[in-house]
Design brief:
About 20% of the residues lie in helices and about 35% in strands. By secondary structure, the chain is an alpha+beta fold. The chain is globular and about 40 Å long.
């Protein structure tokens, strides 16, 4: 059997859950810095803001065995006003973007867990180039705005597509899409 040394290892499954352990929170923060500061140049050296004090971090964890070893995706959610929840800072590690399940799985847990907490409206400001992904996941565009020098779509999730998920601390398993 010949192995392709250039092709990176990708886990066969990912654990999508609320961040609980300190290493998960550190990994989410590091991934956000990598994506929003280093790759996209939207912020200086850190993207943290006041929302981080109240937001819930959600992570996608990869593993080489049965023990999670790296944060490869993250998003945060918070309740802006009673019943209205927001998602922000969705990020997937560059070497895991072709997995195909991580962004959608993070969005699913974000909206479904907020729905279980009384969410009646779930919104996000989505970079314009990512709006199609959200539309495929039953979101609609409700406005446009420039944030951090980039065009964004204000989008709202169709809560009927996201049933309440009451155990986000334990989360769920997401399987990567396999190429045909």
């Amino acid at each position: 059997m010949i192995f392709d040394p250039v092709r990176p290892f990708v886990s066969s499954a990912f654990h999508i859950k609320f961040a609980a352990d300190a290493w998960e929170h550190r990994g989410a923060a590091a991934l956000r810095r990598q994506v929003f500061c280093a790759e996209q140049g939207l912020f200086g050296t850190d993207d943290r803001d006041a929302l981080d004090e109240v937001a819930i971090s959600i992570v996608a964890l990869s593993s080489y065995t049965v023990v999670p070893d790296a944060v490869v995706g993250t998003v945060r959610i918070h309740e802006g006003e009673p019943g209205t929840w927001w998602g922000s800072r969705l990020a997937v590690a560059a070497d895991h973007r072709r997995v195909g399940a991580l962004g959608a799985s993070l969005i699913r847990l974000a909206v479904s867990s907020a729905h279980a907490r009384g969410c009646t409206k779930f919104l996000a400001h989505v970079q314009s180039q990512n709006a199609l992904l959200f539309q495929r996941l039953h979101w609609e565009i409700v406005g446009e705005i420039d944030l951090h020098g980039l065009p964004h779509k204000k989008m709202r999730a169709d809560l009927a597509f996201y049933p309440p998920f009451a155990t986000p601390e334990s989360g769920f398993l997401a399987l990567p899409r396999r190429a045909a």
